[in-house]
Write a structure and sequence with these properties.
The structure is a homodimer. Chain A is α/β, with parallel strands linked by helices. The first copy, chain A, folds into two domains: 3-203 and 317-396, Aminopeptidase, CATH 3.40.630.10; 205-315, Alpha-Beta Plaits (2-Layer Sandwich). Chain A is 34% helix and 23% strand. The first copy, chain A, contains twelve helices and 15 strands. In chain A, the strands form three sheets. In chain A, strands 1, 2, 3, 4, 5, 6, 13, 14 and 15 form a nine-stranded mixed beta sheet that branches. In chain A, strand 1 (47-50) and strand 2 (56-60) form a beta hairpin. The longest helix of chain A is centred in the last third of the chain and has 22 residues, at 282-303. The radius of gyration of chain A is 22 Å and the shape is globular. At the A-B interface, strand 8, helix 8, strand 9, strand 10 and strand 11 of A face strand 8, helix 8, strand 9, strand 10 and strand 11 of B.
Chain lengths: 398, 398
């Protein structure tokens, strides 16, 4: 199976008529992606290990390979209406890179694993990198059992449908280094005129729930000055977040909202918005969220509403090993690959924070668009990515 | 059955633990309210007429009553998480007023009908006064069959479950005058220190769908300046609507929103908001919506998003017959009742526009709060309302 053939097989799974993907964890589409992966592993005679959570590592342990293994791979789930590349590109490239290493007759001195982690996006249970955080112990099974999706389905019930459960895991025992290939989710590689880059680190990232509470009322008869309308406070907070992020060179997004009762002719009683905030370091992130919260509280006072801000998840900044990144960026034919930070969370960040030496490769995204049906990478760049991954793995496997 | 006993029987139907009501049309709770009404009609030996839509008129035609009838009544459905009084107060008061007329030994020269109209709030199918507009011909069955609720259920399918269908109706043939009693939905009667008031008219009212289209993108990696975020345009429009309504002494509310994909870590591709707008006359309403739309379009240009505004329903202003209102307000014992306009739509408005002489009585609302679990009227005021309704009907029935 060539890269193109695998890409072709995976492409229709979970795709809507508009071209976007819905591969939420523990749904039929995402499980079909996993089944596809297991078929590809079987084709290659890999030894498949699955943990209770649904994370998979498929090992190639030829004669002479021993000691801590080299792990590569990514995830197969998507955001709601996401793109084809975020996650799957790393998994398909890993399989293609393994094929390339075998074609080259490489005799690795260490085992090579291809990993797929579940619920990387947090699109269903609101908790990003769920699979890798359970596997590394960053998230406890007890905390995971508290999670429910937006339809009220408990994580444990969703998993039980597929014979899985939120448990701890020894899947990553024996992993000496992790290398994740991922489509770039911004435009830095375009600016560098490079098809491939290496990650220096990941910005810290927090998700905060903003609960605005007001008083439900009649949209016709209630005088404007008698209202306690939480939609107004939410609206001003959305604009304040945008402005603060621009001022501070950071990112702030309100992409999700829930309104009660959400009726055209009723002033809402409650509006909940979720802030996604990221900044270059923890101090900047704290300052950003504080500035937004202060402006929101001020406005709540003027609107006669109240506001509670609850952090739902905050990920520390990740600094990948500078030596490993520099080695990957330079020890190959052709010019050095650029080394750059990313604002997107990845399982690689979780493994790095867990003490596993970790690096990431990025493949150029011609539009910078991601988490969207319009996410794209050119096939030529994807194939360059496979070669870059194979070259890097070959060195790590020596 | 006294007013209090009827109120007690009706109170638990469709009520949630928090005290709000969900009596959406053609649901179990709303049908239970109708069944309760039919039981009360049977107790009083009224002749019940039901049309294909589910509207009901129960007639009292004693010996000697002939000619065009006097109709009173209201509706039994609620907004999402609404109050107990909006609608049911008029129905229960009508039954209690009939009892009072019989106790008084009134021998009417005209028949008296008690009517209940379906889907007055438009809370399920987005089209207010659905039942009365079908009954008067203001809405055609063909237009009604185009309606779907937010779960995609067609009106015809929801009705068919209860043996109903969107059809035209002759239910209102023989109605000479309509008098609807309703809880006040503002604070005007408090300012007038009066338990009962008479409506002069209804402000014109429109519902407009604002579709803001942008580009879905990654909330972390997409630079703020590269975004086309429709949530920003929506937010600014919400604030602009509030400001314009204050400036113009009108009402403008964005109480309902839908976001695609509505994920925390994705810039939305589309945000739809619904504007509920009301003003003292048609010219003022047009000016209000134009001012809001202009500001929204300007902002869309700056945000790199696009906006389409679609009127979903626009109700003309209603002027109840001034002579009838004046007669009701003065021809009784005690001081004159205040005559005042309302910003809320009612079936009375629909019947008035259809050429049926129509009037409304309001019962004081001590907080002014409506379309909310906190909607309230004091029992003493409700009983004064029953007497006011009986007195008015007695005169109209002569």
């Amino acid at each position: 199976m060539t890269f193109e053939a695998m890409w072709h097989d995976l492409a229709p799974i979970g795709r809507t008529a508009s071209g976007g993907y819905f591969r939420q964890p523990f749904t039929a589409a995402e499980r079909e992606c996993h089944a596809w992966f297991l078929t590809e592993c079987a084709r290659r005679d890999l030894t498949v290990h699955t943990d209770g959570v649904g994370n998979v590592v498929a090992w190639w342990r030829p004669e002479g390979a021993a000691g801590p293994g080299v792990l590569t791979g990514s995830h197969l789930d998507s955001v709601l209406d996401g793109g084809a590349y975020d996650g799957p590109l790393g998994v398909v490239s890993a399989l293609a890179a393994l094929d390339l290493l075998r074609e080259r007759g490489v005799a690795p001195s260490r085992p090579l694993g291809i990993g797929v982690f579940v619920e990387e996006e947090g699109s269903r249970f609101g908790s990003a990198c769920l699979g890798s955080r359970l596997a590394t112990g960053a998230l406890t099974p007890a905390a995971a059992t508290e999670l429910r999706d937006r339809d009220g389905v408990w994580l444990a019930d969703a998993m039980a449908e597929h014979g899985l459960a939120p448990t701890s895991s020894d899947l990553l025992d024996g992993v000496g280094v992790f290398l994740e290939l991922h489509v770039e989710q911004g435009r830095a590689l375009i600016d560098h005129d490079a098809a491939v880059g290496v990650a220096s680190g990941i910005w810290p990232h927090g998700r905060y729930r903003f609960d605005f509470t007001g008083v439900a009322d009649h949209a016709g008869t209630t005088r404007m000055e008698d209202r306690h309308d939480p939609m107004l406070t939410h609206a001003m907070t959305v604009l304040a977040a945008n402005k603060q992020a621009r001022l501070q060179g950071a990112r702030a997004t309100f992409g999700r909202i829930e309104v009660v009762p959400n009726g055209t002719n009723a002033v809402p009683s409650r509006v909940t918005g979720w802030l996604d905030a990221r900044a270059r370091d923890e101090e900047a992130l704290t300052a950003l969220v504080a500035a937004i919260s202060t402006q929101a509280q001020d406005r709540a006072g003027r609107d006669g509403t109240s506001l509670q801000v609850t952090p739902e998840s905050v990920s520390a900044s990740v600094h990948f090993e500078p030596e490993l990144a520099a080695r990957l960026a330079t020890e190959h034919d052709g010019g050095a690959w650029p080394v750059l930070p990313t604002q997107a969370g990845h399982d690689a960040g979780v493994l790095s924070l867990a003490g596993i030496p970790t690096a990431m490769l990025f493949v150029r995204n011609p539009t910078g668009v991601s988490h969207s049906p319009h996410e794209h990478a050119e096939m030529a760049d994807c194939l360059l990515g496979v070669h870059a991954l194979a070259d890097s793995l070959e060195r790590l496997l020596r």
